[in-house]
Amino acid sequence: MKFSKEIRVGLLVAISIVILLLGFNWLKGNNIFNTGTDYQVVYSNANGLQRGDHVLIDGFEIGKVKEINLQSNQRGVNVILNVTEDIKIPVDSKAVIGGDLLGEKYVQIQLGTSTVIAKEKALFLGEVEDDVQGQIKLLSGKINAMITSIDTTINVLSSIFTESLKDDFAKSITGIKQTLESFNNSAAKFNAILVREEPRIEEIITNVSSTTDFVNKSEVEVTAILENLKSLSDSLNSVQWQELAKELDKAVESITIMSDKINSGQGTLGMMVNDKDLYKELTQTLSTLDSVLAQFGNNPEIRLILFGGKKDKKPG
Length: 316
Prior knowledge:
Strands 1-4-3-2-6-5-7 form a seven-stranded mixed β-barrel. It starts with a helix and ends in a 10-residue tail after the last helix. Among the domains are: about 1-35; about 35-130; about 130-160. The radius of gyration is 66 Å and the shape is elongated. It is α/β, with parallel strands linked by helices and about 325 residues long. The protein has helices at about 5-30, 130-160, 165-195, 200-240, 240-265, 265-275, 275-300, 300-305, and strands spanning about 35-45, 55, 60-70, 75-85, 95-100, 105-110, 125-130. It is built from eight helices and seven strands; from the N terminus they run αβββββββααααααα. The relative contact order is 0.05. Helices cover about 60% and strands about 15% of the residues. A hairpin with a 6-residue loop joins strand 3 and strand 4 (about 75-85).
């Protein structure tokens, strides 16, 4: 069967239109072979969202924005989300409009915790997060204000720092530098002294350690002495001092009475002490006895006669 030239041109145009429509929908992210599931979201502000923008869950694309229409009362925007992935979305999920630094918009699905799964045409709660570009503009404004403040501060400082003040400041910096150099030199000298005197320092530390050990050992002895003193003090405290004083008084009184009797000539001892003639006779008797004993010691023959011995005869 032969087609006329007009029919062939018509078929070619029709096929081209179909391919163009398919390519256009493909570029928009619409898959005509997979209708997916539609969900509704109402926003107070679409924030620049357009048809064909991505629908994401944790950064993974699950669909596209299918339609964007004003509400019938012209208060809010009704958005249709077409989800082509086989994902079960809880009914309490949120659809949040976000954007990147380049101004591209997207809808981020924040899954809820409900066990009830949303059905087709279900209505999700819509939110709009802070616009990144708006935040950048706000931050840019703050940075510009800060730059202006810094520029003003620099101008004020420039007016304050006159040439004389700059010279004084330079001198102060020089003085600080010299002070630091002097400190470094002193530190180096001190370090050299420490290195040179290290043996003596170690000896001193050893002596201190020995002294500490001696003190620790002496502490035990001192403790024992203190305990002995305490025991002695307790013993002295237990002595009946009043009764001892009474006994001493009695002894002193007896000695006094005896002394008075001797001085008054009472008794044999008193007569011997106070009678001078008796004292002389006793002295003479003792002298005579001493002389006799001396002769007795110097003459052995007297001892033989007295004790019954015989005197040896001298050979003729």
